[in-house]
């Protein structure tokens, strides 16, 4: 009997290697499959390839007999990992291949916010460019500024490497301090979150979304920041309390550039959309052609390994192999 898999969206690669091994159904719409549909599908499949927009909770996991869940993303906060582990279902993700693309995009947001690129474009298109002005659209220096990196995994470290070229002072905070050798080669200094927020001209978030990072940046943290600080979020929306973000931006403390929101997509009546000192992108941190194709290839490889009963090359719950 051939294995059956469900792929929750069209992917930017050929699915032939998978089709030779399994009956493949691909959700054809632009919007994610509704939860009820996923719940029906999961009853008849062996493998699920999902995206961060699919809610893979305990009820869903318990409703089927999945052999593998393969997520095309590095983050997996949409999946109940504990429920999957209880049922011995390996969950795959796609780390590494999106590190540079995401760090590049965080850098693009940082530069855009500092030098007001989006406002400048709006200004020009509105026909407001009438002459060269000494004080038009001024922003802070990036070169030589102090950068605070919150979360120092692969992406956080990739940010540090870029910051070095801009001669920045680099502070980082993370659950675990890294080795003195790594700190030295990256030119970074460990700090508490509090100290980092007080000292940084730019604060960029690179932690996963877990219980400990839920609304990590709220009123108190915004109060600690310099009034001129710029916050960058390319990690997960719920690391920042959106109401606190609105208050901090509306009082013209700080500016921000975010690629992720809580919830996603951002509601069309969100007050955040009314602010000039905020840049918002639609969760495209990993969206380089090469990276998206590598992520899809990796997700397919994890899916195939799981169907075959082989160990996934990238498994977030390796306990299932104990
Ligand atoms: C994107 O946000 C990812 O987690 O890969
Ligand atoms: C993700 O790739 C991270 O570990 O930062």
UniProtKB/TrEMBL annotation:
The keyword Oxidoreductase applies. InterPro entries: D-isomer_2-hydroxyacid_DH (IPR050223), D-isomer_2_OHA_DH_cat_dom (IPR006139), D-isomer_DH_CS (IPR029753), D-isomer_DH_CS1 (IPR029752), D-isomer_DH_NAD-bd (IPR006140), NAD(P)-bd_dom_sf (IPR036291). It comes from the Bacteria. PROSITE patterns: D_2_HYDROXYACID_DH_1 (PS00065), D_2_HYDROXYACID_DH_2 (PS00670), D_2_HYDROXYACID_DH_3 (PS00671). Pfam families: 2-Hacid_dh, 2-Hacid_dh_C. Residues 7-317 form the D-isomer specific 2-hydroxyacid dehydrogenase catalytic domain. Residues 108-285 form the D-isomer specific 2-hydroxyacid dehydrogenase NAD-binding domain. The keyword Metal-binding does not apply. Keywords: Oxidoreductase. PANTHER family: 2-HYDROXYACID DEHYDROGENASE-RELATED, GLYOXYLATE REDUCTASE 1. Belongs to the D-isomer specific 2-hydroxyacid dehydrogenase family. This is D-glycerate dehydrogenase. The lineage of its organism: Bacteria, Bacillati, Cyanobacteriota, Cyanophyceae, Nostocales.
